[in-house]
């Protein structure tokens, strides 16, 4: 029997590592503090593996090959992507993949109606490497990378992503032997490369954050319509957060923070879910 010992959510804006000067000292301090909280929680939970939910940013996939869900199942994965090396300021690293979990989840999916694709050559782009560099900088925690297509239409529905999360939770609790942390990497809104690039939809971010705080999964699913995803922008990861909520069920976060820097393209929303821990909140800024 497995145990989910920690849930985490964090942004992966490449400016966090590549252009920290874009942030004011106040925003940088708040972001460092929030990431420090998540890093401490991960260290204390001491999981055997970190399952990472995020969306590939046209590094591994494009319109010629755009799976809805893809597991990295090779023995190791390497990142950042070569195209990002010059800007990202994260040393290239090779991370061990927990192939027992990756292949177990793949086969569980086959038997339970999840149409996973899988890759022996998945490259870890900034969506993986930015939070990893801040949460486990020694890159010594085994991972399982799971791509959920949040960028290239047509996307999976919010209801399908929530059901996927529920199925992943069932696999981890009942078919995997070990302690697992699950990370959702991404922001609620962001139009990186889109026509609204540079604007931040604070109202939408906070609406979803309020639903997260109360673990209102069905309301999150209902709100994540095609129109909402269009409003959220090209690089939104609402579906990633919904998948994580499916994994965690009715568990409410023990910590949240929302940090908004006007010159930073997207806001940073961070959270942790810890069983039997009281709620804490960082000040929205």
Task: Please provide a written account of the structure.
- This protein has 285 residues and is α/β, with parallel strands linked by helices.
- It has one domain: Protocatechuate 4,5-dioxygenase, Chain B (3-Layer(aba) Sandwich), CATH 3.40.830.
- It is built from 10 helices and 11 strands.
- The protein has helices at residues 15-18, 25-45, 85-88, 99-111, 126-135, 158-174, 202-213, 217-223, 226-232, 238-248, and strands spanning 3-10, 49-54, 69-72, 76-79, 93-96, 117-119, 143-148, 179-185, 255-259, 268-273, 280-281.
- Strands 6-3-7-2-8-1-10-9-11 form a 9-stranded mixed β-sheet, sandwiched between helices.
- The model has no long low-confidence stretch (mean pLDDT 92).
**CATH topology assignment:** Protocatechuate 4,5-dioxygenase, Chain B
Number of helices: 10
| DSSP helix fraction | 25-40%
> Any idea how many domains?
1
Gap from first CA to last CA: 41 Å
CATH architecture: 3-Layer(aba) Sandwich
Question: Strand arrangement, largest sheet?
Answer: 6-3-7-2-8-1-10-9-11
Main beta sheet: 9 strands, mixed
Tell me the total number of β-strands: 11
Question: What characteristics describe this protein?
Answer:
two-stranded antiparallel ribbon, alpha/beta, 10 helices, 9-stranded mixed sheet, 285 residues, globular
Topology:
Layout: E1 3-10, H1 15-18, H2 25-45, E2 49-54, E3 69-72, E4 76-79, H3 85-88, E5 93-96, H4 99-111, E6 117-119, H5 126-135, E7 143-148, H6 158-174, E8 179-185, H7 202-213, H8 217-223, H9 226-232, H10 238-248, E9 255-259, E10 268-273, E11 280-281
Parallel strand pairs: 1-8, 2-7, 2-8, 3-6, 9-11
Antiparallel strand pairs: 1-10, 3-7, 4-5, 9-10
């Amino acid at each position: 029997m497995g145990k989910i010992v920690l849930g985490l959510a964090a942004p992966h804006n490449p400016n966090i590592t590549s252009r920290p000067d874009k942030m004011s000292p106040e925003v940088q301090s708040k972001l460092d503090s929030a990431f420090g909280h998540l890093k401490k929680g991960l260290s204390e939970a001491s999981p055997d593996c970190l399952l990472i939910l995020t969306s590939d940013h046209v590094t591994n996939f494009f319109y010629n090959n755009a799976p809805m869900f893809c597991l990295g199942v090779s023995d190791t994965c390497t990142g950042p992507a070569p195209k990002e090396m010059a800007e990202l300021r994260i040393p290239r690293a090779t991370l061990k993949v927990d192939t027992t979990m990756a292949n177990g989840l793949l086969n569980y999916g086959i038997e339970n109606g999840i149409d996973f694709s899988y890759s022996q050559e998945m490259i870890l782009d900034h969506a993986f490497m930015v939070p990893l560099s801040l949460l486990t900088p020694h890159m010594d925690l085994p991972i399982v990378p799971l791509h959920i297509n949040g960028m290239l239409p047509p996307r999976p529905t919010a209801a399908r992503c929530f059901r996927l999360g529920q199925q992943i939770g069932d696999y981890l609790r009942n078919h995997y032997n070990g302690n697992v942390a699950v990370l959702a990497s991404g922001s609620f809104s962001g139009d990186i490369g889109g026509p609204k690039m540079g604007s931040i939809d604070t109202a939408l971010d906070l609406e979803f954050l309020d639903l997260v705080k109360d673990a209102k999964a069905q309301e999150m699913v209902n709100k994540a319509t095609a129109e909402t995803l269009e409003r959220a922008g090209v690089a939104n990861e609402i579906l990633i957060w919904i998948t994580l909520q499916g994994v965690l069920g009715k568990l409410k976060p023990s910590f949240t923070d929302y940090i908004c820097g006007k010159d930073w393209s997207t806001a940073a929303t961070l959270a942790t879910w810890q069983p039997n821990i009281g709620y804490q909140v960082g000040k929205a800024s």
